[in-house]
Amino acid sequence: MKKVSLGGCDRANPVLPFGFWLPRKLVEGRMYTWNDKPYRCPVEVAFAAVGGKWKCLILWHLHLDKMRFKELERVVPGVSQKMLTQQLKEMERDGLIVKTVFPEVPPKVEYELTERGHSIFPILEQMHGWAIAQFDLKKSAEDE
Fold first, then answer.
1. Domain of 68: which CATH number?
2. How many CB atoms neighbour CB 54 within 10 A?
3. Which residue spans traverse the membrane (predicted)?
4. Residue 28 located in a structural domain
5. Domain residues for 103?
6. 3-class SS at 68?
């Protein structure tokens, strides 16, 4: 069998698709640090940055253009104000989005993707295509 490395993902005797496997000694002990937290695998870091129920949807919609808070609230169905605020703060902290506050009354705030935020869009497009293909998704009649 062919041996390949996943760049540090820590699993006991990891088995990969198509019969690939990783010996334990290749993956033990590797650590990554991001935001002062230890991770054993870069995939963990990616999920920490964009995981959760709302972040990918927010990134998906911000890819098209900058948006205000209420616009995001409308396009991300079911998200509470508190959760949307929390997710936006985390994504701003992680360098995925930038928040611009305009000195107006009432305050105007816009969110837009950073270069890092834009860099994940090809992955989101692949996830979009994968979901359509794997789950036989069809558009509802009202969307056509």
1. 1.10.10.10
2. 19
3. none
4. no
5. 53-134
6. strand
- Token pair for 101: 């506050």
In-domain check, residue 41: no
pLDDT digits (tens), the chain, 144 positions: 444 444 555 454 454 444 555 555 555 567 888 888 888 888 888 999 999 899 999 999 999 999 999 999 999 999 999 999 999 999 999 999 999 999 999 889 999 999 999 999 999 999 999 998 899 888 776 655
Tell me if 141 is assigned to some domain: no
124/70 Cα distance (integer angstroms): 23
Q: For residues 114 and 38, what is the distance between their CA atoms, to the nearest angstrom?
A: 24
Residue 108 lies in a domain: yes
Question: Rounded CA gap, 110 and 65, in Å?
Answer: 10
Number of domains the chain contains: 1
Pick the closest to residue 73 from 61, 64, 89, 90 (CA basis). 61
140's tokens: 């509802």
Q: b/e map of 19-45 (b: 16 or more CB within 10 Å)?
A: eeebeeebbeeeeeeeeeeebbbeebb
CA distance 115 to 58: 15
